[in-house]
Each structure stands twice: as structure tokens, then as C-alpha cells.
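Shipment paperwork, digital attachment
Item: protein structure file
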Amino acid sequence: MPIPILSCDRNSKEVYSRFLSGAREDLSSATSRILPILEDVRTKGDSALFCYTEKFDGIKLSKLTLNPKEIQTNVDSKTKEAFLRAKSNIEAFHMAQKREAWSKVIDGNRLGVKYTPIPSLAVYAPGGKALYPSSVLMGIIPAKIAGVQSIQLITPPQKEGIPEILVWLTQILEIDRIVTVGGAQGIAAAAYGTESVPKSEFIVGPGNSYVAAAKSYLSGQGLIGIDSPAGPSEVCIIADATSNPKWIACDMLSQAEHGEDSSAILLTTEVSFAEKVRDELEIAFRERPKRLEMKQKAIYENSSILVFPTMEDCIWFSNELAPEHLEIQTRDNDSVFAKIEHAGSVFLGPYSPVAMGDYISGTNHILPTARGSRIYSSLGVDTFLKRVTFQEVTKESLETLYPYVKLMSELEGLDEEHGTSVKVRTKGQT
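Attachment content:
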């Protein structure tokens, strides 16, 4: 059953509407299961963390936190070189996002903005098969550049010990501690704080449905800030016949490799090109069978090739879709990109597969999904900064503007105190 090739236009809602549903992971079942865990951590602190770690991970801990400086690691030199190169690129990109305080005189008064970092951050790192050390770089580096002072890594314990690559990264990034607690209980520890685990004001990082449910619930309670709500990973590719069909197929499959609920959507104007990409997908399934069932489910059930009448239609649909990742491989990439309004991160040209941004180029791979890029941005330095406005009003300006304050406060029924607080400062008042 090959991937469907669907011809449509802007009015073909019955064809493309399912891709615009903004599918998010259904966390209702997970939420009902994690609520008792969150309450136990809130009320019982460390004892709940010890209990749930033994129950879910089969490990009886003697302590909940580790000091990275006290752990010996033996990461091979080639792995170090790769991650150091990624670290350098990510730092360079995010350094350009730094904010400086500013002020200007408006109507005689000095108004301005200064930026202050959030005080503390927890970064969640899954364990076992779902090991994403690159996400540790992506979460921590912009926070460090923003000036976050207290950062801890939350990760489930492993019978063989915490993976050396994670420990080494916490060392080179100078993280305060490693909290060896996973799942919803690890998120709760960061949100509430316990005897051993300091409370964090913000948490980022991927995790399973229980982690996602805990982050979403605790954020909704105002207990911790989170990155944008997460859904299945996705890529949209705008391409024409100048593109390499095999490369396009590879890019679609690299997204399918994330999980069976991932989606990859190709937008093009040429049926013959669409057929070539479809054929390359089938060839790839035969030649690269690793995780075959998962990739096929993602491609056959959640993905599609949509053929629109014009490139303008492709751009329109991409903006409606607001994808997490957007690749543009066309005759004129820049002109297409100029018309893009909503996307988590954009990859221009044939040599910019999403995997480059996932690991090494320097942009952040923690991105909004499920059409979230219509209102959210990629994780960056701004994520960890608070904008504090200030003003210094002059005596002359206060007297000049008081009549307007008087009128407006009377209109809102707040003249007795709001209006008076300005009036008493005007000439002739005591």
C-alpha cells in the first residue's frame, strides 16, 4: 500500500482537512494515571521518589541526586569531537539572540525594557532506548546564554548507571546536579521541589506520554513553565521537479523514524515528480528495513503527497499547516521562504535536511508541533528571559498629562484614587 498521492486545490477540504487537525498526543488517559503520582510527590517528597523509582524502574536508589563533577567518564574522542562541534555551533547561533536593555524618551518620559533570566531550569532527558543527548545541548545552551543560574538534569536511573554521554555533557555544560528520577515523578520533583531536589521554575525536554502529561498538567496549574505543548513530530516539504526524489524520500523517512505517529507531507505541483518520490519510498523500505513497521505506519497512515495546481497553493497550504519542520527545495527557495509565515524551523535548499538542524548546524531542534508554530517559536534565548518594562516620569510631563489621566480615570470610575495619585503631584497640590 504505497503512500497516497492526492490532487487537490484550496477548496478540497475533504482531501486535506485531516492534516490540519493539529493532532496532539491524547494525554487524557496518561493524565488520569499520573495525578496520584504528582500528589504523592507533592506531599511525601523524597520518599515518594524512592518508592516510584523502585516500582517503575526496578532500581532501589540510595540517593536521588548526583554531582557531575564527582563522576568519572570515558567518552571516546570522536564522540566528544562531534558534540563539541555541535555545542560550538549552537552557542554561536544562540549568542546572536542575546537581548540588551534599552530606553527612549516618549512624551517627555524615559521608558524602557530590561531583561532578566528565569532563576532556574530543569532539563528532562529520557533514558534507555530513547536517549537524546542532543536535546540536552538544545535545552541548556540557550538557558546558559540567557543567564539562568541554576540548571539541573532530570533523567531516569539505569541499571548500568547514567549514560556516560549524558554525564559528560552535564560536565562540559557545568550543570549543578543530575536528578536520577524519571517519568511523571521526575517532572513533579522539579515542579514542587523535595528535600533533595530543588524546585525549578521551568522545564524542557522530550519524554513519553506520562512525562508530557505531567508537564502539561503542572504548567496548567501555574507550577512550572514548559516549552510549547508537544505532539507527534512532523515535516512538510515543498519541492518541485528540480529536486532529487531520492533525497526527498530520505527526508520523509527520517521523520517517520521518530515514531509511527509522525507525519511527513510533500507539497508539489507535478504528479510525475510525486510518483518518483513515492517509488523511492518503496525502494527505501526494501533496502533499509530497520524499524520498518514503524516507518511504514507513519508513511502509509499519517503522511501524504499533495499535488496542488500552483506553487502559491503549496505555500498557502504550508502556512495553514504551520509545520514543526519545513523543507523548501525548489527553483527559487528564497522567494518561497519570503512567503512563509508559520513554521517551527525552515530548511532551505537540497543540502539542508532536517537532520542537520537536529544535531549540528546550530539552530534549536526543540520546536512547536501540531500547528503550534502559528503562536509559538522554537526554543531560544528568549524562552528563558523575562521582559521587565520601566518608566521614569518627569514632573513637567506628569503635569502636562494629568488632564488626560483625569478624564480616563473618571471614565473608568477610578478617579478617586487613580486620578488623585497623579493630581496630588501636580502644581499647587500638597
